[in-house]
């Protein structure tokens, strides 16, 4: 280039381009590596990228609302449409990276098999702490435990992101549905059948995973550690049963059941938990697809409950609205239906494929799209993804040393211990003596299969301990035979199992179900143990020297009346799917190093309950047709084990110490003049001040009558006289607390009960009402009368 005395415009342009390119490469380098040479996660608004720092959406001093509005205003229509799906495209000109909305964290950071998620475990981080499946964790009845679990999950999720091994921070958990029917394959993902229990679990989980305090209200400026999502909204509890599938099922739900069963957990998840995400479910409710229901998504969730966040469809749910459900008349109508209903992002490609033509046909306006994008970018901003280098921000110090820590794995063990339910313990067979048990036979297809411990929606665990491994750590001379090839148990090696049983001091059978019998898209058609399991158990029990111990791994209930009534089966434990440390927890309980305290979060029905169609959504019984109702609140038939049942190695006694008020007069508390009604008042007519004054403080003394220390959930119920007929629950849970007591120790627990919330039930039109009459607070075998006058 020597001899040139000045630069041409072309050379000037080239130099300028080279400088810009160098800056971009530098910025990319800053984003791609830490000092320790692993990639940084994707983020926007880095200080080394001068092309974006001047944009208002990068200005952290502005509100999230202002920033999101600015960002959306800069997008072209095509760019906007590219953001309406879970695989949100990068927008390089604005420094916005690719984002994956779909990540899973049901009971540990997880993956959805066969699809790309925000977390994939396919790089240097290969595991995360795997807690028990939710149905078992719920059996602990311990909101503080649930919070601590979720806090660990959120910490590990953010740590994986900080390590550059995640492209999404929006986790589609918790499952907030009611376990309505015992055959449901996904019931294992839920906290059970009770709305209060499910709501409290959701609140604890959301607060923990999002980085809030246990009490709530501590998210500074709405900043999220990760984002939680209440799913599947709403009345979703059937996957695939006898040719009826979730994709086209039209759930007929009464206003009454919607108001006091299906919706309350979601209301709690949003109002108290402050969840930043909601997933609308596949199914229709009363003829309207959930993702196209304006009353549900906008009027109820955003309007009545104050939801602030994004709403995603379940995967490919939008396509069904036209293609299978025939609710919409065209692709473009389906797009319009969901965007105008209030849905924001489509899991799948449907909106990417059909939104532009919907705009061109005038069925969707750009403002409909802008509304959705505002919600989407607001959540990404609350996650700190538009605040520059995450290592310099809150949570930026988390990394691989915060994953699978000893403390996290100890918590997984604690959760499994506290959830396991002792269903039978004849003649105090359990715990077995560590010193006197010289030989042990372990039999069963679930005794040594690590993956069965995890349940569904699980990530790769830090490590696993199977029941066989756990038991071997107590008894050196432990022999094992699976008894069957797998849980289907189409044929059983009975003679070999019997021979083994005869040779040992004690026998532990580990039986039950697995994900081949109950899972997503797989509901059960029976409530019994599969194949030859029952006959194998009975034969082994008959041959054994002493009564045997039966351990059940399953999510949904199984009719084990044969074992309950067989004196040769001395102990029965339900261990759900107990997570990575499940085998150790089971062994510790069997040998007395932990005192079981779990209580069933659902009713265990007899096997003939399958005569009730799974498609019947009614909660309340109908004596005229013989319909028995559902869940402990309404079901009036025989039970194998009831909700809240659970034994211990000690006994606990209760006494009501004080009840602050036992006569509640609501006649003078109405906010409106109203004609005399027959025995009830609408809760909406009672002022919030009056509801506050009506709150009842209940103190219960609990005594551990035995010698062994234990954690014990104290469950407080309201039991009604039947003046409300079949419309009123037989009883309902109004509070629960965990107490730890040493042998012979006494302790007190205090419940604050709000009659407006806890004593109400829905009328036929969905209005929450309080009924006149005598009712009872019940804990264990103790009851305390409460009189309500309306």
TrEMBL record:
The keyword Glycoprotein applies. GO terms for molecular function: alpha-L-arabinofuranosidase activity; xylan 1,4-beta-xylosidase activity. SMART domains: Fn3_like. Residues 1-29 form the signal peptide. This is Beta-D-xylosidase 7. It comes from Sesamum radiatum. Keywords: Glycoprotein, Glycosidase, Hydrolase, Secreted, Signal. One of its GO terms (biological process) is xylan catabolic process.
């Amino acid at each position: 280039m020597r001899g040139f005395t000045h630069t041409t415009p072309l050379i000037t342009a080239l130099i300028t381009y080279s400088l810009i390119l160098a800056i971009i490469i530098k910025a990319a380098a800053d984003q791609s590596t830490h000092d320790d040479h692993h990639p940084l996660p994707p983020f926007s608004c880095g200080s080394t990228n001068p092309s974006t720092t001047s944009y208002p959406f990068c200005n952290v001093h502005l509100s999230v609302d202002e920033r999101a509005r600015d960002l959306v205003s800069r997008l072209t229509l095509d760019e906007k449409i590219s953001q309406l799906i879970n695989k949100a495209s990068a927008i390089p000109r604005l420094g916005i990276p690719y984002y994956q909305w779909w990540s899973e964290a049901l009971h540990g950071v997880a993956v959805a098999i066969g699809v790309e998620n925000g977390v994939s475990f396919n790089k240097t981080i290969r595991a995360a702490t795997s807690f028990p499946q939710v149905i078992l964790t719920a059996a602990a009845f311990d909101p503080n435990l649930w919070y601590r679990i979720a806090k660990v999950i959120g910490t590990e999720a953010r740590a994986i992101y900080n390590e550059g091994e995640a492209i999404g921070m929006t986790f589609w958990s918790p499952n907030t549905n009611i376990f309505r029917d015992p055959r449901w394959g996904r019931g294992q993902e839920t906290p059970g059948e009770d709305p209060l229990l499910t709501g409290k679990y959701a609140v604890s989980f959301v607060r923990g995973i999002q980085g809030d305090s246990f009490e709530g209200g501590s998210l500074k400026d709405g900043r999220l550690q990760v984002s939680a999502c209440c799913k599947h909204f709403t009345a979703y509890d059937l996957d695939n049963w006898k040719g009826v599938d979730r994709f086209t099922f039209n759930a007929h739900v009464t206003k009454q059941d919607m108001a006091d069963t299906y919706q309350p957990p979601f209301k709690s998840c949003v109002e108290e938990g402050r969840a930043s995400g909601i997933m609308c479910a596949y199914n229709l409710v009363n003829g309207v697809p959930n993702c196209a229901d304006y009353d549900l998504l906008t009027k109820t969730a955003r309007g009545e409950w104050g939801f602030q966040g994004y709403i995603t469809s379940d995967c490919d749910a939008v396509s069904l609205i036209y293609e299978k459900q025939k609710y919409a008349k065209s692709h473009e109508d389906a797009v319009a239906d969901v965007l105008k209903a209030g849905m924001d992002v489509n899991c799948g490609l449907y909106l990417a494929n059909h939104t532009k033509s919907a705009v061109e046909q005038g069925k969707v306006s750009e403002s409909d799209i802008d509304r959705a994008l505002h919600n989407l970018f607001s959540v990404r901003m609350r996650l700190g993804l538009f605040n520059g280098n995450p290592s310099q921000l809150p949570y930026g110090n988390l990394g691989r040393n915060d994953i699978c820590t000893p403390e996290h794995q100890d918590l997984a063990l604690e959760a499994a211990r506290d959830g396991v339910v002792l269903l039978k313990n004849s003649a105090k067979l359990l715990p077995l003596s560590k010193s006197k048990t010289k030989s042990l036979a372990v039999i069963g297809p679930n005794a040594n299969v690590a993956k069965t411990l995890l349940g569904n929606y699980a990530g790769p665990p830090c490590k696993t301990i199977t029941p066989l491994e756990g038991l071997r750590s107590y008894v050196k001379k432990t022999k094992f035979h699976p008894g069957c090839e797998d849980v289907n148990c189409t044929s059983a090696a009975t003679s070999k199992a019997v021979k083994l049983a005869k040779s040992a001091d004690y026998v532990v059978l580990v039986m039950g179900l697995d994900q081949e019998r109950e899972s997503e898209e797989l509901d059960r058609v029976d409530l019994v143990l599969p194949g030859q399991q029952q006959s194998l158990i009975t034969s082994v029990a008959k041959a054994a020297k002493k009564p045997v111990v039966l351990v059940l791994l399953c999510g949904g209930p199984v009719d084990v009346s044969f074992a309950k009534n067989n004196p040769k089966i001395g102990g029965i434990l339900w261990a759900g799917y107990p997570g990575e440390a499940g085998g150790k927890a089971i062994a510790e309980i069997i040998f007395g190093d932990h005192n079981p305290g779990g209580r069933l979060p659902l009713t265990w029905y007899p096997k003939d309950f399958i005569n009730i169609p799974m498609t019947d959504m009614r909660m309340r019984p109908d004596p005229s047709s013989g319909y028995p109702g559902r869940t402990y609140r309404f079901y009036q038939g025989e039970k194998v084990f009831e909700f809240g049942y659970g034994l211990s190695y000690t006994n606990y006694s209760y006494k009501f110490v004080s009840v602050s008020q036992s006569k509640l007069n609501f006649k003078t508390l109405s906010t409106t003049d109203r004609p005399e009604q027959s025995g009830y008042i609408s809760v909406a007519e009672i002022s919030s001040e009056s509801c506050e004054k009506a709150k009842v403080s209940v103190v219960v003394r609990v005594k551990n009558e035995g010698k062994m220390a234990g954690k014990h959930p104290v469950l407080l119920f309201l039991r009604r006289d039947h003046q409300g007929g079949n419309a009123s629950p037989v009883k309902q849970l109004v509070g629960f607390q965990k107490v730890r007591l040493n042998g012979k120790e006494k302790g007190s627990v205090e419940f604050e009960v709000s009659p407006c919330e806890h004593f109400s039930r829905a009328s036929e039109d969905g209005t929450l009402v309080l009924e006149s009459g005598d009712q009872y607070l019940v804990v264990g075998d103790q009851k305390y009368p409460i009189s309500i006058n309306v």
